[in-house]
Write a structure and sequence with these properties.
alpha/beta, globular, 12 helices
Length: 303
């Protein structure tokens, strides 16, 4: 793939994540985060004429990247509906599932989508542009307790209470309509030497809430166990500790919290086997694509 093919989104850990699927030429695979299609194209390049690939993306903008290939089907839906749409296409089991979580380069770079701290834009942050809940609704309608919980849980911000109180106080005078207004309201929490990092945490919290990212990820992972064949592979790239924690725990013991129940002999069965160690991008990849710097790849196989 040439560098000019990466205009929409440069795929992260491309070879490593697709290698992790252990592609069978006649297998059935799923890319739950199509985006610019980089990972999907790599999967297709390794499939034979009888192989099949189903890719999911809820963002209408991703449809422009659809691949003209009889082996390929693009499902314009959130990956929380993984099992439902595979059944719709008559597929009960698959050989592998790949997910590249987070926001695509395209979503960051289109200013009006509101994902990037670099631009002024309306408070949006919807990955599905038809979704009802936007960042505007969260900032202007959520009560103080919900805002505090959001910033603490999803932004991992210790001053979540002060952030929430400041927003609620400010919006009594006027609606907070765009990202520049939000930055102005929160300016006292944004010292110059740390503003980029703190803003990223604030935006992350709002984006996760708007798109229900943690709930959606849990649903997809649980469904992956239902649709993967025995020895089927799960290859997941995450970008922040909240996602990675869920993926790691699920691959380790099939649960998001707690530990599996042991039998009378102190043994327990887990549904997946973790393969290899955590994989992170090389310095060379990060130099080419700065957004790869926080990526973590984990691979597991269904027992």
């Amino acid at each position: 793939m040439n560098s000019e093919d990466y205009g929409y989104h440069r795929p992260v850990l491309l070879k490593e994540s697709v290698d992790g699927l252990n592609i069978k030429p006649d297998g059935i695979y799923v890319d739950v985060t199509f985006g610019g299609g980089g990972h999907s194209r790599e999967i297709l390049s390794r499939l034979g004429e009888n192989g099949k690939l189903f890719s999911f993306d809820q963002d209408e903008d991703a449809l422009q990247n659809a691949i003209d290939d009889p082996r390929f089907t693009l499902v314009n839906q959130n990956f929380r509906y993984l099992k439902r749409y595979l059944r719709f296409y008559g597929v009960k089991e698959v050989d592998g599932i790949l997910g590249d979580l987070g926001v695509s380069s395209h979503q960051f770079d289109v200013a009006e989508r509101g994902f990037s701290t670099r631009f002024d834009a309306e408070l949006d942050m919807r990955m599905n542009q038809a979704g009802e809940l936007s960042a505007y609704n969260v900032i202007n309608d959520y009560d103080e307790a919900d805002l505090r919980q959001m910033f603490y849980m999803y932004g991992e911000l210790n001053n979540a209470g002060a952030l929430a109180n400041t927003i609620v106080t400010a919006r009594k005078n006027a609606e907070i309509k765009n990202t520049d207004q939000l930055k102005l309201v929160l300016s006292r929490f944004l010292p110059a030497h740390k503003s980029a990092k703190i803003l990223a945490q604030i935006y992350q919290a709002i984006r996760i809430e708007v798109n229900q990212e943690m709930d959606v990820l849990k649903e997809m992972l649980e469904q992956s166990l239902e649709v993967l064949k025995p020895d089927g592979r799960l290859s997941i790239i995450s970008y922040h500790s909240l996602e990675d924690r869920l993926v790691k725990r699920f691959m380790k013991n099939g649960m998001f919290e707690g530990e599996p129940e042991k039998d009378m002999f102190g043994r327990f069965e887990v549904p997946m086997k973790q393969l290899g160690k955590l994989i992170i991008p090389t310095d060379e990849e990060i130099a080419l694509n700065n957004r790869a710097r926080s990526a973590k790849l984990r691979i597991a196989e269904k027992k």
